[in-house]
Amino acid sequence: MVKRASLIALLAWAATGQAANFDAMTRCSTGDVKALKFFNVGQASLYRQNCAADDPLAPPLRLEFGYNREVPGDAFAKAARKMIEHNLDDARFQALLPRIEAFNQHYRTTRDGDRYTLDYDDDGSLVLRLNGEALAREQGRDFAEAYFTIWFGERPYSDDLKASLLDTGH
C-alpha cells in the first residue's frame, strides 16, 4: 500500500513538473554538524527563496549537509528514526513509521566531500539526494514536517545546530 501510494505521488509530481529551483535558492544560514556533540563531521545549510520569510521552515526549502568524513548510511537511518520518534507522539509516529522506514532505507555511507540534500517543495514532496542523485521521495506535508523535527523539533539532534540554522540574520 505504501509503495503504491509513493508511486502515485511520484507520478503526480512528475506530471506537474512545477518543482522549485532549489539550486537557485539563497543560503540563509549554516551550522556545524557534530557527532557525539564533539566530533565535527560536516556543515548544514538552510536554503530559501526568501531568507526573511516569516516561517523559515515553510516550503520550498533545501536543507543541505556537507560531510568531511565517512558516516555509515545505517547511522543516518537509525538516528533519523530515533529523532523523529523523540519528537512525535506515539500515535503519529506509528502512523508514519512505514513511510519513515521506506525513506530511510535509501541512505548511503558518505565520504569526505559528499553532500546530502533534503528538498521540500510547495506540493509537500520531500526528496533526499546524495551529490545531486535522487535517492528517495515521499509525498505529504505530514511526513516532511515530521522529518524536519530531526533538526527543528522540540528535541532536535542538536540544539546548537537548530539555533544556527534558524538564525537567518533578521
Fill in the keyword field for this structure.
single chain, Chalcone isomerase, 6-stranded antiparallel beta sheet
Give the topology, please.
Layout: H1 2-16, E1 26-35, E2 39-48, E3 61-67, H2 73-87, H3 90-104, E4 115-120, E5 125-130, E6 133-139, H4 141-147, H5 149-152, H6 159-166
Antiparallel strand pairs: 1-2, 2-3, 3-4, 4-5, 5-6
Helix pairs in contact: 2-3, 3-4
Alpha-carbon distance between the termini? 44 Å
**Any idea what the shape is?**
globular
Q: What integer is the average pLDDT? A: 88
Helix content: 25-40%
Compute the number of structural domains.
Answer: 1
* Total number of helices: 6
Q: Give the strand order, joined by hyphens, for the main sheet.
A: 1-2-3-4-5-6
- Model regions low in confidence, pLDDT < 50 over at least 5 residues: 5-17
CATH class identity: Alpha Beta
Describe the biggest sheet?
Answer: 6 strands, antiparallel
Report strand %.
Answer: 25-35%
Q: How large, in whole angstroms, is the Cα Rg?
A: 15 Å
Here the CATH topology equals Chalcone isomerase
| Helix/sheet category | alpha+beta
Please write the string of helix (H) and strand (E) elements. HEEEHHEEEHHH
Give me the CATH architecture, please.
Answer: 3-Layer(bba) Sandwich
Number of strands: 6
Structure description:
The chain is of the alpha+beta class and 170 residues long. The protein has one domain: Chalcone isomerase (3-Layer(bba) Sandwich), CATH 3.50.70.10. 38% of the residues lie in helices and 27% in strands. The chain has 6 helices and 6 strands. It has helices spanning 2-16, 73-87, 90-104, 141-147, 149-152, 159-166; strands spanning 26-35, 39-48, 61-67, 115-120, 125-130, 133-139. Strands 1-2-3-4-5-6 form a 6-stranded antiparallel β-sheet. Strand 4 (115-120) and strand 5 (125-130) form a beta hairpin. The N and C termini lie far apart (44 Å).
